[in-house]
Amino acid sequence: MNFADSEVIAAILTKAGYGIGESAEEADFILINTCAIRDNAEQRVRHRVRELKAMQNRRPGLRIGVLGCMAERLQSRLMTEEENVSFVCGPDAYRRLPEMLAQVRRNEELRIKNEELAAVELSATETYADIEPVRLAGNGISAYISIMRGCQNYCAYCVVPYTRGRERSRDPETIVREARTLFEQGYREVTLLGQNVNSYEWIVESGKWKVGFPELMERVAEIDPRLRVRFATSHPKDLSDKLLEVMAKYPNICRCIHLPVQSGSNRMLKLMNRKYTVEWYLDRVAAIRRAMPDCSITTDVIAGFSTETLEDHEATLDLFRKVRYDYAYMFKYSLREGTYAWKHLADDIAEEEKTRRLNEIIALQGEIALENNRLEVGKEYEVLVEGESHRSKEQLFGRNSQNKVIVFDKGDAVPGTYRRLRVEKCTAATLIGALVQ
Ligand code: 5AD
Ligand code: SF4
After folding, report:
1. Domain check: are 294 and 355 in the same one?
2. What letter would DSSP give residue 422?
3. Residue with the nearest Cα to atom 5 of ligand 2?
4. Smallest CA separation from ligand 1 atom 12, residue
5. Ligand 2 binding pocket mutation candidate from 72, 151, 166, 275 (most atoms within 8 A of CB)
6. 304-333 residue pLDDT tens
7. Nearest to residue 410, comparing CAs of 435, 437, 377, 383?
8. pLDDT tens, position by position, 41-56
9. How many Cα atoms are found within 13 Å in the side-chain-facing hemisphere of 423?
10. Domain range spanning residue 389?
11. Is residue 397, in this structure, part of any structural domain at all?
């Protein structure tokens, strides 16, 4: 989501006459787009800001702005705590950036100290729908499209509803137009983004007609069979059969669903305010596999949430054994100021114990991923070739519909095209394949 936001920011500033620097060394402004979801993400940003002090000493005109969720969360406090930050701008205020940058420069010329410049108001309607993002450092093949902003699910541990505001969907016409333009420019894959895409909703004629996520997917998939469509993230509480039907109907909608579970214990899920049970979750997994037996499923999980017992933790491991995820993003619980958990629940699992539980989940998932990958050996897949492999110039890599990376000897394959590959070997993270002529 931040990557997509940075592309919107680049578009706003380009229109205002700014250019994107080749390196930090030549920039007048350094804008840092930030995440506030866990404390370590914020600590990394603070570290980066402090590192820039040396550069600012050499070039006194260099100004630093912190954007995104951390700006929204900490507001002008961030400018007090990090003295070399000149302004902060939250996720709904990016249209004000040109005016803010101009003010920073004006203050500079007048040699007045920057007043505290903080644009942090949240909006109930801003979707940046009319802004055509400037694609930053992309590969020209795969792009993100933001389809909605904000979240109001209020999971007990999560800061996002406070930093990104209320949920709002973007006009489907502008989404389809953006996807079509990308396809015409040679892109072959779009990922539709939202905190909870399943609650995407656009009312066309009040009370009469609305576009939901399945209809939106259908419209994007119809653009061209050669345009792959992905999406993230689905909240398990409202993953509908209708969406699965649409996915099954269009081969260019990728066979991959990210379905964050967070915990395998019903007691934890309730405390987390996730609004589903383990039984409901497993039913959704079964529905996915019925509709698309070859669909990959990935997840997010949190270890060591408030009052988590060994039994709760075991339940998470059990769930991992049952679902056998293709990939998992695994986190230690991090207490976030302002959340329900911060107000009402103790952060009572010792840090070492959180680490131990997390490592146990990571080790189990590593085994499962390797076993899953071994089952892929011998299978053939259509792959969208993306570019050179990191390991060797003689090899390329691409992804199959399930979002698995396959590395292969180049031959006559070209990035941006589809090729058929046979999987020949694997590690826990990668499949190694060969072109099928
Ligand atoms: N601590 C740890 N992980 C968190 N996530 C969200 N909030 C927290 C937190 N306070 C994780 C969830 C979510 C992912 C994006 O980040 O697993 O799905
Ligand atoms: Fe956070 Fe829950 Fe919203 Fe996801 S659904 S962004 S975890 S509050």
Report:
1. yes
2. E
3. 153
4. 300
5. 151
6. 999 999 999 999 999 999 999 999 999 999
7. 435
8. 999 999 999 999 999 9
9. 23
10. 380-435
11. yes
